[in-house]
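Something for you to look into today, if you have time. What I am after is a single protein written out in full by you. I want to see for myself how the chain folds. Could you add the entry underneath, on a fresh line?
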Amino acid sequence: MPTLVSDIYATPHVRKLLAEENRVLTPLLQRCTGDHGLHLTAATGAEPPAIPLLGHWASVRVAGAHLAGDVVASGLEPLPFMDEAFGVVLLRHALETTARQDNLLDEAIRVLEPGGMIAITGIHPLGLWSPWVARQSGRARPRLTWPWWWSQRLVRDDFELSMPRRLGSAWPRAGGAAVGESLIGGGYLLVARKKRPAAVPLRPRAAVVPTPVPGTFASGARRHAREPIP
């Protein structure tokens, strides 16, 4: 009988997959800017990728109906952040462990500023990782979702979506050489940019410019020159 683990995201297999994600994410997000980024993750102690043009990260662990880390709150309520507060939002396996998938994605979109980047990673439900997750997790099984579903949600919410990527090894393994992107990788990555509102051009309005009056007239003549001739 296989030994169940309380947290598959703490296993060496998933830790290696997280490292592969960072390897692929870092060059994709190098141009992201802003004062703050939001890192929503299923893994305890997972570090976000280093982005030199970004000010600070807020890291929040998502576990069912609970949020922990830099923010301790209920996962059943809206995220405790203002609208458009972050230049980049990373959902790293967070949609697999949240109690309300659609709500968490809606909240991630809400707190992302126009022009900002959102990235979603997860374990692909098609492949050898899926049965491994089922065997290891028992009842506390992550909810693996097709990346196509998140792609459709982002397109519907007016995002510019890049091509989904597969990454990591084809089967769970704790060691071995770094893989990065792979056509049959066990993980997936979606990156999209939130479109800015379209600028509404102002209609130019003709301005009345008074006709200059020569300064050679006497003061009385200058005054009468502005009056209409009957």
